Design the sequence.
């Protein structure tokens, strides 16, 4: 959908997505990177929607000051700030101003689509967010690197 009122299209992907979400449209995005593993592996398609306020446990799309986009899970909320963290990350991101959060993920697309904004999926996401990095660290401490390569 191209604006027909003389306005030009936004220059960056982040600006274009921000514009689409301001217009009330959903967007499906291929995400890359391993910060949201295991629930959202690299290459997954997430459907983002501008509708609804983010809740703790939601995966949100945030626009960083350098115009990069990040999709991470909300772990804490305040009036003007949101704290996020990737499910596979050991540490949380710094606080993000609420106005930088442009959408929330409502569905993980695939052979079996998963709704991400339900109570149970937010709870599962928070459990993974809390314990997955520790499980991976423990596995790496117990199983030597050489043995991991031989089993792969």
Sequence:
């Amino acid at each position: 959908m191209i604006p027909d009122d003389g306005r030009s299209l936004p220059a960056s992907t982040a600006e274009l997505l921000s514009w689409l979400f301001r217009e009330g449209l959903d967007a499906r995005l291929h995400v890359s990177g391993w910060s949201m593993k295991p629930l959202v592996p690299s290459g997954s398609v997430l459907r983002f929607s501008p509708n609804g306020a983010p809740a703790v446990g939601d995966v949100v799309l945030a626009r960083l000051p350098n115009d990069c986009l990040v999709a991470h899970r909300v772990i804490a909320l305040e009036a003007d700030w949101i704290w996020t963290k990737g499910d596979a990350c050991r540490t949380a991101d710094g606080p993000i101003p609420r106005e930088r959060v442009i959408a929330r993920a409502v569905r993980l697309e695939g052979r079996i689509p998963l709704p991400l904004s339900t109570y149970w999926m937010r709870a599962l996401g928070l459990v993974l967010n809390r314990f997955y990095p520790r499980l991976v660290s423990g596995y790496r401490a117990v199983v030597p690197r050489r043995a991991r390569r031989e089993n792969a």
User: Anything to note?
Assistant: The chain has one domain: 13-151.
